[in-house]
């Protein structure tokens, strides 16, 4: 994957609302979660409750996690692996808080059960595919006419440093 693909990964991820987050070791099963991104920050941020499997796994030292995203309409499929850690920064909570998060907690952002988790990626496997059905169909037609494989986008395994530099550039 080239630099444009990596920037495209981050842009597409910004436009997707959710994926599945869980621990690699199985301490926390994969569950649907909404991620949030901050400018220039390669961490993926989640608001959850302290009594969830995810928060308990982090508290018990099992912070190795995976986040899986699959959205054909956005042309992004990815498995992001990294370290999941709790963050108690009130300013960060203010920045991340939304009406969606507010609906989950009776006490709002002051609810004692609110927990912020940040996934700092150490690697990702990413597939970027055409987002237009017309582009896909044209690729298939061209492949049939030329006898070549269709160009179905790009795929690559990205390191933490590549992800971080791509996020700063996005």
Write the layout of secondary structure elements.
Blueprint: H1 3-14, E1 19-23, E2 31-33, E3 44-49, H2 53-59, E4 64-71, E5 76-87, H3 90-96, H4 99-102, E6 114-128, H5 133-146, E7 154-159, H6 160-169
Helix pairs in contact: 1-6
* Structure summary, number of beta strands: 7
Q: Tell me the β content.
A: 25-35%
Radius of gyration: 18 Å
Low confidence ranges: none
Features:
32% helix, elongated, alpha+beta, 7 strands, 170 residues, 7-stranded antiparallel β-sheet
Task: Outline the structure in words.
With 170 residues, this protein is of the alpha+beta class. The protein contains six helices and seven strands; from the N terminus they run αβββαββααβαβα. It has helices at residues 3-14, 53-59, 90-96, 99-102, 133-146, 160-169; strands at residues 19-23, 31-33, 44-49, 64-71, 76-87, 114-128, 154-159. Strands 1, 2, 3, 4, 5, 6 and 7 form a seven-stranded antiparallel sheet that branches. Strand 4 and strand 5 form a beta hairpin. Helix 1 packs across helix 6. It is elongated and about 60 Å long. The chain starts with a helix and ends with a helix. The mean pLDDT is 89.
